Amino acid sequence: IVKDFNSVEVRMCLAFPDVYDIGMSHLGTKILYSILNKNPKILVERAFTPWIDMEKELRERKLPVLSLETHKRLVDFDVVGFSLQFELTYTNVLTLLDLSGIPFRSKNRDLTYPLIVAGGPSSTHPEPIAPFIDIFLIGDAEEKLPEMLLKFAELKKTNLSKTEILVELSKLGGLYVPELYETEIDKDSRFEVIKKPKFQGVPEKIKRVILENINRFPFPDDSPVPAAEAIFDRMSVEIARGCTEGCRFCQAGMIYRPVRERDPKKIVETIVSAVKKGGYDETSLTTLSTADYSCISSLIKKVNEKLRPEKVSLSVSSLRAYGLSEDVLDEISSVKNAGLTFAPEAGTQRMRDVINKNISEADVLKTCENVFSRGWQKVKLYFMIGLPTEELEDVCGIAEMGKLMQQVGHRHHKKGKVHVTVSVSSFVPKPHTPFQWCAMDSMETLRQKQMFLKDLTKNYKLDYRYHDTKGSFLECLIGRGDRRFAEIIELAWRKGARFDSWDRQLKFDVWLEAIEEAGIDVRPFLGTIPIDARLPWDHLDMQLEEKFLKKDYQRAMKNRLSPPCGKPVGVQVHHTNLKDAKEDERILVCYSCGIACDMKKMREKRFEFLEKIDSPAQEDAKLVSEKNAHQTAMERFNSGLSPHDFQQGKACSYRLEFAKTGVFAMQGHLDLVRTLPRIFKRANLELYYSQGFHPRPLMSFGSALALGVESLQEFMEISLIREVSVSDLFERITQASPEGFELTKVERILENDKGINELTKVFNYLVCVQSNLENYFSKKIQSFNEAKKFEIEVARKEKTRKVELKNIVREIRLANKNEVSDKLLISSMDGIFVFLSVNNVISTAKPYEILEGIFERELKIEPTQIAKISSF
Fold first, then answer.
1. Residue 234: what are its φ and ψ, rounded to 5°?
2. N vs C: which end of the chain shows fewer Cβ within 10 Å?
């Protein structure tokens, strides 16, 4: 979404403190980007943290980070907002500020700099990063953020100082302004805690903002489509917010209460619309506990019913071991069965009771039986080690559960076909949870448990994954840290800490040096905290009763389980049809956690959603459908057929000629292969697919261009299910194409026509080289043309071999700049242009290798200096 920078009242940049690949998968950014940009008074653009090599290049050239939409500096915005998803991204916040020329500390920024705001789950315990941030938005941002932005724009027009403006903004509620509070050291915990506000009218406690009706803000169906592959490269839709389960280690389950479900009818509409607008071939339903959505069975069936004709697969995230009924598993297996992931979290029943994981071993094994019997061969299990009261027997139970699952799998598949993966993370005590007072295991203890499990899983022939304990150690320190930790974070950043959440980037020694240099005793932040001590996050009110957390902590220490909220006692999943739901009059469990849930209203809302998605008149047909779904799933599994073995008729094939210029040339070939089907889907073209478990659109390409090389003439072939006129096809693709992809020609391919690589014999290039060496280049070209043989060495996969260029190069000469099309980026470059014509053997030697070999000197040619101007 691109707006005029000067036509709005307030300009905000959503700056994500991680790389583009991860940031483009973040649902919160998609929601806020859509909501804020729909307001004509607000402009929102995006920025992401540059990777290590890019940061180096920017610093060497003294260039700032720029926004994605209109390439503005972050310092030019009124507000820069960070989404704090994880404590180990804090150094990336400093990277973005520094590359933007924005001072780190709030006290060093006046109104000539943007207001720095932050939100997300880590903003609920913000003290370690508080000195760097002007305002934290605590809770749901859909309503509060637009209100805050417009109020800030209004206040900036007055003569108020920055501090006076911050005082006024703090009165809006849900906004924590660290600068406005005094701190002191608590004698019991030895933490630096908030003492009191410095100014009248500033709230003593900041209440979390709770959006009661999330259906007032439908999930966006028009989010920006990633140009490069995102980490979750699919259309994900949030179906609910909050969780009923009450796992005692889970911060999200506490800070996102109460459960609020999206209208199932709107979810289906959003997914169908998003698939058409974005061209996605995979979608996902996501929330903290998908199986707890009140009409999940009917929702999955309805979504599959809409997506199956579009050949779009559905994945369901955050499953629990007992979470889905058999008919839903049948439904999922009819679309995709690569593997399923579950999170038992602990290996023994005692330990599952301690953490309040309301499942038994029987539940896990039953689900495992249901999964493997439906053709699945891969199951991944998530566990934690280092949990409070954990003993070696509990750690051993993790491997034992994996072994039991494997045995179930072997009853349905040959031994070599079953893959059970045990993935283990280390428990980190999180603020605002019943375990916030618990100690964290030492790194040495955690490593011993990891190695113990490694040996056990090896004996049981299970796949085993575990995380480095160093990251967990820092996560605990920063997560439970106080305001003094800002010095540690800044020192670590100045010593080179970047992307600390990436195992291969974490510089643990640097962090230890920073801790030592800051002179802070970190032991209290790792050990058991007195239950009545003041905490660095006590001034932030999650609207949970303090006694609720303490009571649940005490129950945990006694191995006592608490049933899930919002369900009758003993019920694991909601009813799947309206009739059964209405007949069940049992009282729903409520622990009075502090969130004022209306249980009657909750029950009525579930009835409403079940009625919307699955009317009573369809009940008989539904039972038949469920039976058929199971029968179909089993028949396909037993016959070896894929869910995607479908009848398509005879393919209609077309050859497309296109230009790839400007920003689009910065997409690699694999990104091009991934992006083009989305363009065709947006053009409402029915692509012809391969058969099998992983169907792909039938497409073929000419020789792949190197990343950054522009081209005015590329070729590809596509196959469609139905014939479309050449002119109609050209118009549809043109309308759906992004900047830099220009369709130039379309022709129908008949059965006996030659393919692209048979037709294309010659590639012509223009290359921009140094302007002060014209005579030198001219002489070298002449020498090459006069030579009978001219061999060069090229490197491939750490090996070198000789290539005879006289068999490859058809023509080489100096060219005039007027031969360069204005469509190409290189048209704006200063230098001499070389025309190079080569035979279609580009894999033998690349254009830059040919030129560097002919010119025989220290000549480095970047891909952006090369443009392919024609192929024939």
1. -155, 170
2. C
Backbone angles phi, psi at 275, to 5 degrees: -65, -40
**Burial class of residue 426, CB neighbours in 10 A (0-12, 13-18, 19+):** buried
Q: What is the 3-state secondary structure (H, E, C) of 837-862?
A: EEECCCCCCCHHHHHHHHHCCCCCCC
The residues, any chain, with a CB within 8 Å of residue 793's CB and separated by 6 or more, are 800, 801, 802, 803, 853
Which residues, other chains included, contact 863 with Cβ-Cβ below 8 Å and sequence gap of 6+? Answer: 706, 707, 708, 709, 848
Cβ 377 vs Cβ 413: under 8 Å: yes
What average pLDDT does range 35-58 have in this prediction?
A: 97
* Contact indicator for 75, 94 with CB cutoff of 8 Å: no
Q: Nearest CA to 234 among 280, 267, 271?
A: 280
* Rounded Cα–Cα distance for residues 244 and 358 (Å): 11
Q: What is the rounded CA–CA span in Å between residue 399 and residue 387?
A: 16
496 sits in the region (left: phi over 0; alpha: psi -120 to 50; else beta) called left
Whether the CA torsion 238, 239, 240, 243 is positive or negative: it is negative
Q: What is the DSSP letter of 822?
A: T
The set of residues, in sequence order, having a beta carbon less than 8 Å from that of 362 and lying 6+ positions away, is: none
Contact at 8 Å (CB) between 649 and 684? Answer: no
Strands 235-238 and 282-286: parallel
Other CB atoms within a 10 A radius of the CB of residue 16 amount to: 23
Instruction: Answer for the pair 114, 186: CB distance below 8 angstroms, yes or no.
Output: no
State how far the Cα of 531 lies from the Cα of 81, in Å rounded to an integer. Answer: 34
**CA distances in angstroms from 250 to 432, 434, 660, 747, listed in the order given:** 9, 9, 47, 57
Rounded CA-CA distance 471/829 in Å is: 45
Quickly tell me which residue has 């100014």 as its tokens.
199
CA quadruple 304, 310, 311, 315: dihedral sign: negative
The predicted pLDDT at position 336 comes to 54
The mean predicted confidence, pLDDT, of the chain is: 89
Q: What is the pLDDT of residues 675-731, one digit of tens each?
A: 899 999 999 999 998 876 667 889 999 888 889 999 999 999 999 999 999 999 999
Which residues have a Cβ under 8 Å from the Cβ of 721 and sit 6 or more positions away?
648, 649, 651, 652, 686, 687, 688
User: From the centroid of its chain, how far is CA 616?
Assistant: 38
Pair of tokens at residue 721:
């299910």
The whole-angstrom separation of Cα 362 and Cα 769 is 70
Query: What is the per-residue pLDDT for 625?
Result: 47
Which residues neighbour 44 within 8 Å (Cβ) at sequence distance 6 or greater? 1, 11, 12, 13, 14, 32, 33, 36, 37
- The full length of the chain comes to 872
Question: How much is the average pLDDT of 200-222?
Answer: 95
User: Rounded CA gap, 850 and 681, in Å?
Assistant: 39
User: How many CB atoms neighbour CB 860 within 10 A?
Assistant: 7
Angstrom distances, CA of residue 335 to CA of 64, 275, 286, 372, 755:
46, 16, 17, 16, 33
81, β-bridge pairs = 14, 117
Nearest in space to 381 (alpha carbons), one of 405, 412, 358: 405
Angle between helices 264-278 and 599-613 (to 10 degrees): 50
Question: Nearest CA to 39 among 115, 116, 142, 140?
Answer: 142
For residue 557, what are its two tokens?
Answer: 């220490």
Tens-place pLDDT, residues 381-406: 999 999 999 999 999 999 999 999 99
> What DSSP letter does each residue of 427-484 carry, written as one string?
----TTSTTTTPPPPPHHHHHHHHHHHHHHHHHTT-EEEE--HHHHHHHHHHHT--TT
